[in-house]
Amino acid sequence: MEVDPGPYDLDDTRVILGPRGDATAKAVTPNFYAELDAEFGGFKGHVLISRHEFSEAWGMWEVHPLGDEIVYLISGDVDFVLWTLEGENTVRVDRPGSCIVVPKGVWHTARPNAPTAMLFITPGEGTQNAEAPTAFA
């Protein structure tokens, strides 16, 4: 068996799913995202599985231009804000076990209404972050 089955704690480890379905566990470091690009060929065709907890608004927006992101609520209550041609579209996610699909190319941010924990399944190639949405991807 090549893959170490774990268990892993998604608080300090992320799982990268490769284009062929192979999984790699990687410890979170201060340069984690730069390392992903370097170690996984610009993250082309890869998906990042991560867990995050937050109790304050993100303070930034992000977009994934090459794939839809799935965000699963573990606990809490959060407003996911999607930036569309019509302006901000707020989707409340307040039932643990529910999820939202953030369409590819849509800028988004999160504003929790309570301390929140979520699982993210993110197509990472080309991800951009900004203080405000800049243009449609």
Which key phrases capture this entry?
7-stranded antiparallel sheet; globular; 137 residues; single chain
Your description of this structure?
The chain is mainly beta. The protein has a single domain (13-130), classed as Jelly Rolls, CATH 2.60.120.10. The chain contains 1 helix and 9 strands. It has one helix spanning 32-39, and strands spanning 13-17, 23-27, 47-54, 61-63, 69-84, 87-93, 99-102, 107-123, 128-130. The strands form 2 sheets. Strands 1, 2, 3, 5, 6, 7 and 8 form a 7-stranded antiparallel beta sheet that branches. The longest helix has 8 residues, at 32-39. It is globular and about 45 Å long.
Main sheet characteristics: 7 strands, antiparallel
Measure the end-to-end span.
40 Å
Number of domains: 1
User: Which regions have little confidence, pLDDT < 50, spanning 5+ residues?
Assistant: none
Oligomerization status of the protein chains: single chain
What CATH architecture would you give? Answer: Sandwich
Order of helices and strands: EEHEEEEEEE
Q: Any idea what the CATH superfamily is called? A: Jelly Rolls
